[in-house]
Amino acid sequence: MSAASEEVQKDLDAEFRQILYIIKPYIAHINDHFHLEKYRVWLERLSESSTAEKFERNKYLVELANQIHDNALKPPFTFGPPRGPLPKLRTFQKEELEEWPYISPRRPQHADPSKRQEAKDASPQKKKHSKTKTISRPFQKLGKVDDSRINSDTSSWCDLTESGTSVNLGCGDTDLDEDGKKLSSQHKKEGLKLQEHFMKKYEEESNANSKDSESCSIDSRQFMDTTEEINSSRKPTEEEVEALKLRMKDLLEVKNALRDTHCLTEDRKKTIDNLQIKLKNAEKQNAELKSQLDAQKKKITEMEKLKNKEIYEFKEKFTHLRQKEIEFLKQYHKDEIQEVEKSHSSRISVIQSEIKEKIEAVKKEYEEKIKKLDESSAELLKEKDEEICRQVPLQLHLQNKNNPVVRLRSEIKAKEGEPPDEQNSEQIISLKKCISKLDRVLHKNEKDYVKKIEKLKQELEVRDMTTQVQLRTQRADLIVRNTAAKQEELKNALNSLEGKYKKMMETLQLHALEAKKHDEKLIHELRALLDKHNIVH
């Protein structure tokens, strides 16, 4: 940013602060809360504007100052400030811009009083001539001063003696209409440049009032002397006539200025009295407002207590209703289960009867199969017994054969002690051969018999095992079929109950949400009422 742009920004900020300083005393006399709220919102928005919006911001502020001065609210301030950048002000007028002071920064030559005095001393005649041309009387109507123009009157009075371009005041001219029109613009132009010197000037003027009366008499005498000189000199020169005219003009200006100061002091006293009266009224209003605020605070505390009590009661009622709803749901659930059981009990009984019939049929089948297996096992046992019976004579025969063998052995042993004979020895050898053959036959028969018995045992065990396995598989199939059917029925019943319970829970949740929304709406409305009445919550 260049130095020139920085200076421009500083000048714009200075103008903004000066206009705010001018607006401040007028705001105290505005009683409309709506206007005050709009002014506050717009002032906050203008104070937060960016550097690119400062020129337009000052335009808006001057327009707002005009409306505050007139105690009015006009577009664009009837609406809220825009969110984005400030648009150009179309309703703004240049004449109103020139009516307010500090639109352009003060020139440095008027800031220093010593420089102003030097300027006055350097060209006194020109300044007198300009004063005679533009004499305005802004204090002629100070007896009827409005509340919003008191501060501007005091600031304009301060500016009369300070600025080199200010004008002298008068009280007795006839051009009252023009002066009345210039009054508001003159007050706005003069502003509050040197308000801090007001008391000093007032004291100096009060001390100078006595001197002014004497100067008035002296000036009147001088005026009479000049008139006598003019009358006595029958043939004055042109230079003397011009000098006398200039002197008379100066004397008239001094008289008017002195009369204006007298009028100003009287009007100031009146304004001070009016201000004191208004101060007392404002203090009374403040006391009444404080009492009203205390009463409102008490009401707010009572309302908060009532609100808390109502909230507590509402919570208790809500918990009680919630418990009732839970109990009702439990009872409803039980009733539904009972109704479902009743409705499905007939089907269950039918299914159970069918299952019993199937079980009985399966039992009969298995009993028949068991009977057949028993019969087959009995037949096998019979065959076994028959075989055993067959083998019994063989055993007897073998025993019978064994008996002679034993006899022969005993005889052989007895004869072994006797002397051997040739015939006996042959018989013994033949007998031994027979015995060995018989032993072989017996061993073979025994082995065959044992093998057959083992085969029969294995066959019986295998049959028993197969029958048991078949029975177990059939039982498992029946159990699985029955359990699958029951499980399907139970699943269907449970699914239907779950669907009903979910629907009931959804309805209850919807009711709870509707109640919650209604409560939130009530709370929002109550908060809006509190905000509308500016009650802290």
From TrEMBL:
Residues 109-124 have a biased composition (Basic and acidic residues). The keyword Transferase does not apply. Residues 125-134 have a biased composition (Basic residues). It comes from the Eukaryota. Keywords: Coiled coil. Residues 241-306, 352-386, 480-507 form a coiled coil. It holds the Pfam family DUF4485. Residues 100-149 are annotated as: Disordered. The keyword Coiled coil applies. This is Intracellular protein transport protein USO1-like.
